Amino acid sequence: MSDEILDRPFDAPEEPEILDLADNGKRFVNYLIDAFIARVLAGGSMVLFESLFMEGDEVSTKIEVLEFGLIYFVMFAYYTFMEGGLNGKTLGKYITRTRAVTQDGYPLDWNKAALRSLCRLIPFEPFSFLFDNGWHDTLSKTCVINDHKKR
User: Fold this and answer.
1) Is this structure's pTM higher than 0.85?
2) Distances from the Cα of 44 to the Cα of 2, 91, 146, angstroms
3) How many domains does the chain have?
4) Domain containing 66: what range?
5) What value does the mean pLDDT of the chain take?
6) 37: exposed, middle or buried (Cβ count in 10 Å: 0-12, 13-18, 19+)
7) Which of 39, 72, 99, 121 is the most buried (most CB within 10 A)?
């Protein structure tokens, strides 16, 4: 066996994907679907959190800060686990038949998925698409492609 084969991750494809970049329309639909799902999950988490830790009408600044952190954690976890565990796909990407890959065309690993998710938490990040690729693509060196594989 050659060293080249041994140095490659065991789950890496022989050849990288040819990058057929998804257009901004599909990416916007991805955003709408995934943002809705992430916010529903975050809202459900907040209701659960409040039911476990709140007494009556007691609302303190500490609780509000914790809820704010919980929202960001749930959004981070949703995107990371979906893209890291489902070959670069989220529910929105399944619907639009797109997926996230590295700029070289290789599947996302957990680190890239987490970095993309972390970058999504930057204030005004959704507006970064008005100028070029989103910051979560640029900073993590990833892109979203059309997925031509059969479902």
Assistant:
1) no
2) 52, 18, 32
3) 1
4) 19-146
5) 82
6) middle
7) 99
